[in-house]
Amino acid sequence: MAHTESSAPKDLAVQEDVSSASSQDSTQPQQEMGRRKSRILLFSIMLIATNGVIYELLIGGYSSYLLGDSITQFSLTIGLFMSSMGVGSWLTQRFEKDLEQRFIEVELLLAIVGGPTVLLLAMAHIYTRLYAWVMFAMIIAIGCLIGFEIPLVTRIVERYGGLKKALANVLSFDYIGALFGSLLFPLVLLPELGFTRTSFLIGIVNLGVAWVNLWVFHDDLRKGRMFLWIGTFVSAALLTVGFFYSAGWIERARETATQQKLVYLEHTPYQHLRFVKEQGHKHPIYRLYLNGEHQFSSNSERRYHEALVHPAMSAATKRQRVLILGGGDALALREVRRYKEVREIVMVDLDPAMTRFARNHPIMRQLNEDALHDPRLKLYNMDAAQFLKRPNKPFDVVILDLPVPTQIALSKLYSIHFYRLLRRVTHPQSVLVTEAAVLNPIEYKPFWSLHRTQQKAGWHVYPFVLETMAFLMFRQTPLQTQDLRLKVQTQALQKGALAAAFSLPPDATPHRLMPANTLDTHALMNLILQLR
After folding, report:
1. pLDDT band at 440 (very low <50, low <70, confident <90, very high)
2. How far is the CA of 270 from the CAs of 63, 65, 414, in angstroms?
3. Who wins on pLDDT, 479 or 219?
């Protein structure tokens, strides 16, 4: 009897130990599964943040290429995107159940909406006048979806480690992902894939996030699993087709709308280079576009380049050393080469892809007469302002063949600061020249703004007009323009044209109230954009 009573507590203790061990055995796999799910979610957040930044850069950058004024485009994109994320975050409070399924659905929807972003923007620009509204709609939709995901994932991760740890981890991975996106887009994706294919690739990454989480949380989903799997595979097929063929769709649409056949296309770290052949002409007409801005037409470019180069070359007392800033197409260089007394030509163009295209493409070589193979030429692919800061011997003639300043990076090359830098590479008799847009009673403001800018920089400025093109010639010392005569044979510029070019029409009187262009205000860029 005593033996029975003493053994009972021992049996109970053994049972409790077995029960405790069994409970621990079942809890450990659950904890490990929870940690695995948490890691998958945090990695998903990092990819979501990476993709979110890239979507912003895609929309802002593509809009800048099409419309100019990069500051406005990026400001609108970032501001509207962030506020839309706030709206998406606010909406998550309405969902209490099936959070994993909601997250996968949102990620799938983001892939479908975000992947074709650039394709939709391009078609809106080609076929409609509603580009801005389409852009706003895409920003709001993508921003709301990304804003919806972050608090949703935070609430799921909270189950596996508490709110404090969840918030810290989610925000840390979110910020790391944003850094990756901001580096990956300009350094790798845009140069290698361009806008359209990058957009579809990021959509595919969103789809990959949806697929991984669908696989991990498969057993936690109550309903709709088959619908999600089908949606994932169908979306994968559509996005893959878009990745490989969307750029071609855009070009064919543009060809149909503009009657221009694509000859050459390249996305560089600096610009979008597009060379086309215009259809419907007896003789082929080629046009070059940089960031959507028309640079030249093969049937009329001689009028511009001869007017840009030869008045300045004729006005110079010496022509031994010539500097060309910009002019990567080598068409201005072609005109400079006509002067036998030129011993050295230095050309500075930022984009090596542009000068490589002009040097190697057979049509460009024909247009510029193989100018980039001239032994007198020294070519520098660098920023013009940085080149002017280097030690240089003075040049006799400086030709500024720069794109229209519709963006900050170009506007600085038309500023008081830049024109003062030009004094470092000139002597008192050096002659400089630049295009100055159009001069007429309606569009006179940019012209006189640039005129005032050069005067504020300390130059003597001489406006002249040839046909409908306006230019500004400037020098450190006064220049006599009334007796200028052409020094070489030209094709488009008539011999007697220079005598009358410096007599401006009566309605082109100087407007001294026009603001000068500075690095702080970029007044010239704003005046140009107001006319568009």
Report:
1. low
2. 15, 11, 18
3. 479
Question: C-alpha distances in angstroms, 167 versus 14, 102, 176?
Answer: 43, 19, 14
Q: In the chain, what are the domain boundaries? A: 33-256, 258-294, 300-530
Task: Find the mean pLDDT for residues 125-149.
Answer: 94
Q: CA 302 → CA 242, 335, 372, 437, 497, distances in Å?
A: 41, 9, 17, 17, 15
What is the C-alpha separation between 33 and 39, in angstroms, rounded? Answer: 10
User: Structure tokens of 430?
Assistant: 């050096």
Contact 519, 412 (CB under 8 A): yes
Instruction: Show the tokens assigned to 90.
Output: 């606010």
401 labelled catalytic:
yes
3-class secondary-structure state, position 478: coil
Task: Tokens for 373, please give them.
Answer: 């193979």
Q: What is the mean pLDDT of residues 77-95?
A: 92
Does domain 33-256 fall under CATH 1.20.1250.20? My reply is yes
Q: From 200, 50, 208, select the one nearest 118 (Cα to Cα).
A: 200
CA 36 – CA 444 distance, rounded (Å): 66
Strand pairing partners for 297? 287
280: phi > 0 → left, psi -120 to 50 → alpha, else beta; which? left
Annotated catalytic residue, options 11, 401, 507, 520: 401
Phi, psi of 346, rounded to the nearest 5 degrees: -110, 125
Tokens of 420: 């003062």
| Residue 435 confidence (pLDDT) above 70 | yes
> Does residue 298 have a pLDDT over 60?
yes
Each residue's pLDDT tens digit, 235-293: 999 999 999 999 889 988 988 888 888 899 888 878 889 999 987 777 889 999 988 88
CATH match of 300-530 with 3.40.50.300: no
The maximal CA–CA distance of the chain, rounded, in angstroms, is: 137
> Is there a contact between 202 and 51 (Cβ–Cβ < 8 Å)?
yes
Tokens 């694509």, residue located: 262
Report the C-alpha gap between 104 and 460 in whole angstroms: 66
Number of other residues whose CB lies within 10 A of the CB of residue 10? 9
